[in-house]
Amino acid sequence: MIRIEPRNAPTRLLTLGVPVLSALVALALAAVPLAFAGADVAAAYGEMVNGVFGSVFAFSEMLTRATPLIFTGLAAALAFRARLWNIGAEGQLYLGAMAAVAIGAGAVDAPGIVLVPLIVVLGAAAGAAGMAVPTLLKTRFGADEVVTTLLLNFVILIFVQMMLEGALKDPMGLGWPQSAPILDQGMLPTLIERMRVHSGLVIALIAAGVAQFMLARSVWGFRLRAVGENAAAARHAGIRVNRTLFSVAVVSGGLAGLAGVSEVAGLKGYLTADLSPGFGYTGIVVAMLAGLSPAGVVIAALFIASVFVGADSMSRAIGVSSYLADLVVSMSLLCVLIGGFFARFKLVRSGRVAA
Amino acid sequence: MTSPRVLSLNALSKRFGSVVANDAVSLDLHRGEVLALLGENGAGKTTLMNMLFGHYMPDSGGIDVYENGQPQPLTLGHPQAALAAGIGMVHQHFALAENLTALDNISLGSEPLFALRRSRDRVRAKVQGIMDRSGLNAPLNVPVGHLSVGERQRVEILKALYHDARILVLDEPTAVLTPQEADALFDNIGAMTRDGLSVIFISHKLREVLAFSHRIAVLRHGVKVGEMVTADADERAIARMMVGADTPVTAREPMRPGAPVLTLADVTVTARSARDSLQNANLTVHAHEVLGIAGVSGNGQSALAGVISGLLRPTGGSISVDGRTIAHPDPLAMIGAGVGRIPEDRHHDGIVGSMSVAENMVIERLDDPQVQRHGLLNRDAIAQNGQALSQSYDVRGPGIESPARLLSGGNIQKLILARVFEQSPRLILANQPTRGLDMGAAAEVGRRLLAARARGAGVLLISEDLDEILGLADRIVVIHDGKLVEVATRDREEIGLKMAGEPA
């Protein structure tokens, strides 16, 4: 007979070990469908590792893929810490991207030193607005933000498609539904010559560092944690719960908006309706794998990006579908949820005890 | 005791890590007997009862339940087995589904999951029978969320009896009841024991233990230190046995009240249910004064406390602290005006369990320049403050950096006291400050409140424990049905009648 008992406090080893173990288990489980697909499992995994660490280019591609995931992962991690369930990072990402092309593709003609910060700030502001609205609906009317943020993703995407057929459509685009490109001086500079990895990564890392610092060391972070962990006690202690939630929403939405800015102004140059392959949703997995810690988000984003880039390379080399990456990502979320349970509870063997 | 045995606990031991919660505790219970289990907080009473009920697995020892005089070993660690053996437990924190009616709560878990037709009439008839025999009455058709604490407790007991309990364990049953309600509860218990029920009740209150139990067992530090027949016991001896020394008596020096520190003028709170309402409440608390609010739970105490702590905006009337009217009462405004608040539910409203002890000690003063500079926490100052307060208020636990939820109930209350008293508040709102605390910790709370009064603070003490109010309060106001009435008498009976709403 096995019983479940809560642990007093999860140990440091467990908090760190569970996500790492979850990631490894998810990778191991992926071997099963790989084998069913008739692939040589060892060779496939070798190809995956090679696709990430095999060359500077491969590694830089992984970093490029990790950049938006760090932003959306931070957006989810901070909001979730405050028990504000922002499932709308995908939509906020598009709002940020839309703001970036609206300003950067010729509307404002300024030197890069002005234009780049303007794009970054207004893109973040657009994302922030995208989360501020559902949060106000929550604090004012009690509308469940899980529902509103999730559904807004689709509303925003359709709005993007409308804009790409209308106001934002590139007149030189040969009729394709895409925006005009961002002016050259408005682009985030690349970090290494002839490679795609761009300074959005630097902004993402700074954002993670600042978030980590603010969460632990600032009054804002204190309020955020208190509201998330016991809103009733926070309110009793004089913390303005709704105001705190609103500030968290602005920061979370802003970070998601930056993911869009960084994809458009760092990588693609123009906006299409398939800019994001679900970075907003994957950000939730990143945040969960990271145990909602901003520093952990960076590591989790690098892992998830490695899986995606490695799986792409594997599929090119041995012809296995790259959907395997989605499988690994979803399984690592399941594993971390199960692992989180074991971090909080322990199994105790029980039976009759001899007197 | 000549009646046959129904239960024996044989040398039960339980350790939690390095803490020995129970060390070879043995206990017998006879048919129709009321056994009082006494001991300070952390003495191991609840652990022992949780092993009996199958919530915890003992490390060693066994339990026998007697069936027709024959001992039957109880399968340990299985609440289902305990239930089947006729053991019922009413916890301090009730386990009721608030959105279901009392009747549904009572029958919950005893009906087959896929029954085509629920035999509510049969359930109702059985419950009615139990109510008639025991005198325990509760409205059966009202969702439990709308019932008072006393009524909820009766529902819990009815639930245990409905499941044919022969042995009933009550964990601090009177902590939330008025004297009359408590007396009624013990009357009901008396009726039930005459029917053959055996009762173990856990308590801190010597008066009721002496008045209503047949036998007393005392635990200290997980060891049974004494057992006696109640008729031969005296209060002082038991108290000494519980704490290992004579209990300190809180002495209340007479004091001349100063200027008013809190004035409520015609404060009205309109709520859907009467128990959350307040009708034209007028109240003045002076400096150097403890004002006690006596009342049965659910008569507007939570509305009164809500208004003074700033959580509840009154629909009418005005509040002033230290002569200044609070225009927009909210928690921040009340803290700013010098109101220290000790909340009723210290786990839910008092602390953020996963944040550290030190952080919980500064949570009400995040704008204080000692705690923060330019929006950044001054972590050294927070740690020093935590260290100093833990020492001066004797907050014991695994350390100031560990989560506050790891502290015991008494130590959580000390944390809150430290946080409140350290700010030298003008007014202290103490809502049920000793609920669930052991004698030592409760006496400490009383001493701190009286020390604040001596310093010149006013204290508004809301308590359902009349003994506590009689011991600490300079003036007594009874709250009934959302209305406040000051009483001049200090006679238990008379105050009790007022609490029940009888015109004196």
UniProtKB/TrEMBL annotation, chain A:
<keyword id="KW-1003">Cell membrane</keyword>
<feature type="transmembrane region" description="Helical">
    <location>
        <begin position="279"/>
        <end position="311"/>
    </location>
</feature>
<dbReference type="InterPro" id="IPR001851">
    <property type="entry name" value="ABC_transp_permease"/>
</dbReference>
<dbReference type="Pfam" id="PF02653">
    <property type="entry name" value="BPD_transp_2"/>
</dbReference>
<dbReference type="GO" id="GO:0005886">
    <property type="term" value="C:plasma membrane"/>
</dbReference>
<dbReference type="GO" id="GO:0022857">
    <property type="term" value="F:transmembrane transporter activity"/>
</dbReference>
<feature type="transmembrane region" description="Helical">
    <location>
        <begin position="146"/>
        <end position="164"/>
    </location>
</feature>
<feature type="transmembrane region" description="Helical">
    <location>
        <begin position="323"/>
        <end position="343"/>
    </location>
</feature>
<feature type="transmembrane region" description="Helical">
    <location>
        <begin position="53"/>
        <end position="80"/>
    </location>
</feature>
<feature type="transmembrane region" description="Helical">
    <location>
        <begin position="245"/>
        <end position="267"/>
    </location>
</feature>
<keyword id="KW-1133">Transmembrane helix</keyword>
<feature type="transmembrane region" description="Helical">
    <location>
        <begin position="114"/>
        <end position="134"/>
    </location>
</feature>
<protein>
    <submittedName>
        <fullName>Nucleoside ABC transporter membrane protein</fullName>
    </submittedName>
</protein>
<feature type="transmembrane region" description="Helical">
    <location>
        <begin position="197"/>
        <end position="216"/>
    </location>
</feature>
<keyword id="KW-0812">Transmembrane</keyword>
<keyword id="KW-0472">Membrane</keyword>
<feature type="transmembrane region" description="Helical">
    <location>
        <begin position="92"/>
        <end position="108"/>
    </location>
</feature>
TrEMBL record, chain B:
<protein>
    <submittedName>
        <fullName>Nucleoside ABC transporter ATP-binding protein</fullName>
    </submittedName>
</protein>
<dbReference type="Pfam" id="PF00005">
    <property type="entry name" value="ABC_tran"/>
</dbReference>
<keyword id="KW-0677">Repeat</keyword>
<keyword id="KW-0762">Sugar transport</keyword>
<dbReference type="InterPro" id="IPR027417">
    <property type="entry name" value="P-loop_NTPase"/>
</dbReference>
<keyword id="KW-0813">Transport</keyword>
<dbReference type="InterPro" id="IPR003439">
    <property type="entry name" value="ABC_transporter-like_ATP-bd"/>
</dbReference>
<dbReference type="GO" id="GO:0005524">
    <property type="term" value="F:ATP binding"/>
</dbReference>
<feature type="domain" description="ABC transporter">
    <location>
        <begin position="7"/>
        <end position="246"/>
    </location>
</feature>
<keyword id="KW-0547">Nucleotide-binding</keyword>
<dbReference type="GO" id="GO:0016887">
    <property type="term" value="F:ATP hydrolysis activity"/>
</dbReference>
<dbReference type="InterPro" id="IPR003593">
    <property type="entry name" value="AAA+_ATPase"/>
</dbReference>
<dbReference type="InterPro" id="IPR050107">
    <property type="entry name" value="ABC_carbohydrate_import_ATPase"/>
</dbReference>
<feature type="domain" description="ABC transporter">
    <location>
        <begin position="262"/>
        <end position="503"/>
    </location>
</feature>
<dbReference type="InterPro" id="IPR017871">
    <property type="entry name" value="ABC_transporter-like_CS"/>
</dbReference>
<keyword id="KW-0067">ATP-binding</keyword>
